[in-house]
Structures are given as C-alpha cells and as structure tokens.
Design goal:
This protein has 400 residues and is mainly α. The protein has 3 domains: 5-170 and 247-257 and 365-394, Rossmann fold (3-Layer(aba) Sandwich), CATH 3.40.50.620; 174-238, no CATH class; 277-364, Tyrosyl-Transfer RNA Synthetase. The chain has helices at 18-31, 43-50, 57-71, 88-97, 102-106, 109-117, 126-129, 131-140, 154-171, 177-186, 190-206, 209-221, 227-238, 280-288, 309-317, 320-331, 337-364, 367-394, and strands at 5-10, 36-41, 78-82, 146-149, 249-252. The strands form 2 sheets. A 3-stranded parallel β-sheet has the order 1-2-3. Helix 15 (309-317) crosses helix 17. The longest helix is centred in the C-terminal third of the chain and has 28 residues, at 337-364. The protein is elongated. The two termini are 28 Å apart. Bound molecules: tryptophan and iron/sulfur cluster. Iron/sulfur cluster binds at residues 292-293, 296, 303, 305, 308, 310-311, 326, 330, 335, 337, 340-341.
Length: 400
C-alpha cells in the first residue's frame, strides 16, 4: 500500500531442483521485472524444525542463493539477503508476540499438520509454535504488499493480515487523530481532498470496496505528502487509526506441474528429483532409467502415455506436435521408450544451459555471492530500520 513491494522467502534446503525452478523461481524472475522485489533465505525458519541439525545450514544457504541466480533472479533488480543478518526481524517478532493470542497460533493449519507429519522430531517448542508470527514479522517489517507463496502458505498470509490489523488497531491511535487526518486531507489539494472525502464516505456508508481501492490508489499517487500523513490517510479511510503496518496480499504461485522421475510430485524427500545443477550425464542417466508404462515390457508392446511418468515431462517440455508423436508412437508401439525420452533429455539440458552459465562465475569465486548478499542485507536493513522506528514509537519505546 505504501510502495509496490514484493517479498518472499525460502528455507535453505540446499541445491534446488527443477520443481523449484518451474514453480517458484520462474515466478520470481517474472516478478522482478514488474515490482520492487526482496527475496531472502529464511535461515531462522530452518531452525524451527532443524534445530538439531545446524551443520548444513550455511552451505545450504550459499548453494540456494547460487541457484536463485542460476534461475535468472537478477541481483541488480532484486535484493537477495539472509534473514538472520537483519536482526530487526527478531525485534519485530518479539514485539508482535506481546499482542498475539495463543489461540491464533494454535489454529494455524501447518502447526498441527507438521507436528503430526514430522513425528521423528519434537516440535512442541516455543519456536515452532511461533514460526508463523516470525513469518509475519518477515513480511510486515518491509511493509510488503505482495507475497508470492504456494497454496500451503496462504493461511500464514491471512494470519499476517490479522496481526497487522490488530497491531494498527492497538497502536495506530494517537491523540487528536481525527484532526490530524482532516489536516492531511487538506494537504492533498482541494480536488483530491473532495474525491478522498467522497470515496471514504462511499466505503464507510455503503461498504463499497471499489471506493476503498480507488481512495488507496489516490493516496499512493499523492507523492508529495509526508509518510505520517499517508499513514493517517490510509487509516482514516477505514475508520481506525494510523496504518503503521499495512496488510499484505498473498500472490498465489500456481503449483508446479513438474513431476518427479517416478511420477509423484518432484521433491527431495521422495528422492525423485533432477537438480537444477545436475550435470549432463546425470540428467541423461536419470531420465533414461525412469520407469515407463509397465505394459510396455517389450519394445513391440503398445503402451498408454496416461500410465507413464515420462508423459508428464512431455506435458511440461513438449509442444502439441511432439505430444501427438508420443501418443501415436506409444499406442502403436511405433517408438521405443528411449526414443520417447530423448527429446526430454534434450529439453532439460537446453533449459539448464543458461543456468549453468549464470552459476559458473559464482562457483569459481564464492566472494561474488557473499558480496551480493551483503548488498542485499544492507538494503533490507535500511528498510527494516525505518519500520522499526515507527513501530517503537507507536509502542511507546522511542525514548527521545
Ligand atoms: N514459511 C515459508 C516456507 O516454509 C518461508 C518463509 C518464511 C516465507 N518467511 C516468509 C515466505 C515470508 C514468504 C514470506 O516456505
Ligand atoms: Fe512412456 Fe513414451 Fe514409453 Fe509411452 S513410449 S511408455 S509415453 S516413455
């Protein structure tokens, strides 16, 4: 709502695979051309579930950032940084924790799900319960308005919106708010001020959401008013106090259609992945040994792509013409499975070519990645510090 800003984070799971590329990273690459973007490694989040396995985190962090760059995430367009290097996330998390009802955290669906799924670990920890709130702090500290996430994370964004609303409600009040808001309206100039008044009335009296959106856009377009007044104008629209932490929106990332080598979803835990940086021989071998339609015992047995994981790859990598060739050839036993797999091998290698090229300089000189991340951290810290100044002030902790 303040500026057009996208933020997203990923746990440091190490080398990424083509599922990450097709799902999340291609989306990031597109977004970096359309918005201001911040992407970070959620290393503290990794600790909420892997607190007993910290040795791998650092290497995983660097490998993952290299894979982001390999995918085409451009450090000159997007700030890339590490969560723990911006300690303000922790400060905001702490302050938000004071006003977060326990029941809200216990009701987050991933809480019970994960506890039930990861039974080999003791997840009855304070950190694990609080992790959605840490995620809220990650988002709110940058006043990000768009958060690209998968379906499973949408409840966390909803939760973040509730936290922001509660925060603004509790701490956005200031003495003389109405007078200050009215004064801020005048500063818009008479034409815009009248429009603001009309739109506000339409929203408050008739619940007209479109009027609310238009009024917000009007504030966003009014570049020449002070930040405090902007916050008042946003808050006054909805009847509350100042908006100190704007509510973010989830930008739903479509689930990747990338299948794994065995036909299940591609995932490290299923051991069915092709890594973004697997070399050509590994890729060829992995695809050549993929299972196919079990009906095709001999080369002369006809098969059905519907029963074959290789077909799923053709859905990602092949055009209509080649798909027709596969379907006809498979059903008539006109082509062999290795023949059918070759275009997939070629397509994956072609996709990986530019990735390998982009990653190469960083593999040769690791200080390059360190420098990119240092720059990203600095940018993130500047933004985070600004928010924390307002948050501390709102909570009576500025001691000036
Ligand atoms: N919780 C996310 C995940 O497990 C990662 C994450 C942490 C995140 N903080 C975030 C995503 C902030 C978006 C915004 O995938
Ligand atoms: Fe699968 Fe292709 Fe073999 Fe048919 S020909 S079973 S689609 S690999």
């Amino acid at each position: 709502m303040f500026v057009d800003r996208v933020l997203s984070g990923m746990r440091p799971t190490g080398m990424l695979h083509l599922g990450h590329y097709q799902g999340v990273l291609k989306n990031w690459v597109r977004l970096q051309h359309e918005h201001e973007c911040l992407f970070f490694v959620a290393d503290w989040h990794a600790l909420t579930t892997h607190y007993d396995d910290v040795a791998v985190i650092e290497q995983n962090v660097w490998d993952m950032v290299i894979d982001w760059i390999a995918a085409g995430v451009d450090p000159s367009r997007a700030a890339l940084f590490i969560q723990s290097q911006v300690p303000e996330h922790a400060e905001l998390h702490l302050l938000l924790s004071m006003m977060t009802p326990l029941g809200w955290l216990e009701r987050v669906p991933t809480y019970k799900d994960q506890q039930e799924k990861l039974t080999e670990k003791d997840l009855s920890t304070y950190g694990f319960l609080g992790y959605p709130l840490l995620q809220s702090a990650d988002i709110l500290i940058y006043r990000a308005n768009h958060v690209p996430v998968g379906e499973d994370q949408v409840p966390h964004i909803e939760f973040t919106r509730e936290i922001a609303r509660r925060f603004n409600h509790l701490f956005g009040r200031e003495p003389g708010f109405e007078d200050k808001a009215e004064a801020a309206i005048k500063k818009l100039g008479s034409k815009k001020a009248k429009l603001y008044d009309d739109l506000r009335k339409r929203f408050q009296e008739q619940g007209d959401d479109e009027a609310l959106e238009q009024a917000r856009a009007l504030i966003v377009d009014s570049q020449n008013i002070a930040l405090g007044d902007r916050e008042r104008l946003f808050g006054y629209l909805e009847g509350g106090g100042k908006v100190i932490l704007p509510e973010p929106q989830a930008l739903l990332t479509e689930a990747s259609k990338m299948p794994g080598l065995d036909g299940n979803k591609m995932s490290k835990s299923y051991n069915n992945t092709i890594a973004m940086r697997d070399d050509a021989d590994t890729v060829s071998k992995k695809i050549r040994t993929m299972p196919t339609d079990p009906a095709r015992v001999r080369r002369t047995d006809p098969g059905d792509p519907a029963n074959c994981p290789v077909w799923q790859f053709h859905l990602v990598y092949s055009d209509d013409g080649r798909r027709a060739w596969v379907t006809d050839g498979c059903k008539s036993a006109g082509i062999g499975c290795l023949e059918c797999k070759q275009p997939i091998i070629d397509a994956v290698l072609a996709e990986q070519g530019p990735m390998r090229e982009r990653a190469q300089p960083y593999l040769e000189d690791p200080t390059l990645v360190r420098n990119i991340v240092a720059d990203g951290c600095e940018k993130a810290r500047d933004l985070a510090r600004d928010t924390m100044r307002d948050v501390r002030e709102a909570m009576g902790l500025s001691y000036t």
